[in-house]
From TrEMBL:
One of its GO terms (cellular component) is extracellular region. One of its GO terms (biological process) is lipid metabolic process. Pfam families: Lip_C. Residues 70-182 form the Lipase-like C-terminal domain. InterPro entries: AB_hydrolase_fold (IPR029058), Lip-like_C (IPR056304). This is Alpha/Beta hydrolase fold containing protein. It comes from the Eukaryota. It is found in: Secreted. Transmembrane segments: none annotated. Gene3D superfamilies: alpha/beta hydrolase. Keywords: Hydrolase, Lipid metabolism, Secreted, Signal.
Amino acid sequence: MMRPWMAFLQLAELFVSTMVHMLYGFYIFSTAVAGDLSLALNEYFSKSNINIQINHQTLKSKTNLDDLPPIVLVHGIFGFGKGRLGGLSYFGGAEKKDERVLVPDLGSLTSIYDRARELFYYLKGGQVDYGEEHSKACGHSQFGRIYEQGHYPEWDEDHPIHFVGHSAGAQVVRVLQQMLADKAFKGYEESSENWVLSITSLSGAFNGTTRTYFDGMQPEDGRTMKPICLLQLCRIGVIIYDWLDIGCLKKYYNFGFDHFNMSRRNMGVWGLMECLLGNAGPFASEDWILPDLTIQGSIKLNYPLQTFPNTYYFSYATKQTRKIMGVTLPSGILGIHPMLFLRVLQMSQWRHPSDVSPPYKGYRDEDWQDNDGALNTISMTHPRFPIEHPSRLVERDSDCQPLQPGIWYYKMVDGDHILFIVNRERAGVQFDLIYDSIFERCRKHVFRKKLPTLPNELHHHAS
């Protein structure tokens, strides 16, 4: 009798989760459309005859701006950059807080690897090259979008960049820095890890999340999906969206799978069926974001990633749970976004299947129960698995002055996973406190120190 009852509960949970996510997606989309319509109407009726006399002053300010290293805001899963969803800002308008901020538009569901490649060419310019070996293995085109003009073509060791990543965006930046250190971009053999001045993570996905298993990833391998789950519905929707290839919609929002050539013009009806059946496309090759966000996938991704001695690292780990009589539970009802409340509750009660090998030696369920509705708090502080990187908990900023590179400084923040994005009003004064401190640190406290001199060079100078 239990099996039908459990199946009914699972289907009911799937229905509720699907409806909540669809309603939130519709809310975001309609908000963006309403904002664009309002802006267009205002421009039409006002027809302001502003005299554009910015000449010398504008040129002067632009010259000053050129001296500032850009702060690059990198969005997370289902995110979008400047130019998508009309005038809507993924970072809630935080980019207006500084004079030189870039907000790249990367694939919202593409793999961490693919997004890191896209971010490089967004900054340097040229055609995105995903690499011949990777492209063949994953069954997509080697080349992607063309950036006629890079957004920071002078980027190099003498002109390093500050990166701020939300959620999976933080891991994208870590992978990019390792690619720079490994000189992984053809034609840019002079690249190095020192092209990155600082990395700041907002609810960063460093060590994976148990949420992936609730959404449908198999805890046995962290790569494949359960037959019936939220991610299967998402997969079908994304394939159909990309196959229909409606120009105006794709310009408004794009999942980032253009290099898989899933358009109806390229693959026809038979190609659509192959993708839906799981025989082709990104979901068949596992070259998409969710396998990278499982605990197993993150450990695999983390193996080659280093924390470099000349880069500054900071992270803000969010938590929306608390312990009551030894039991981890959501810290409230009203403060948690409706889209995340169910997942906060589920993740707080997480138990790794007893018949499945743990993802790493020393794994404990209780370590993974605090969460923000999307990521486990243990995952957000700093890279921990398979190797723990140097870190320091910060309670007061004055405690860690002067800042040292090569250490992950992390703060704990009460809030859910989307508190500091999209809807600025939700975070209230916390929004300004967080982003103001990030931008102030980038501009006033983080500078490239002179790179250390090698011992043999010291000896040479002494003689």
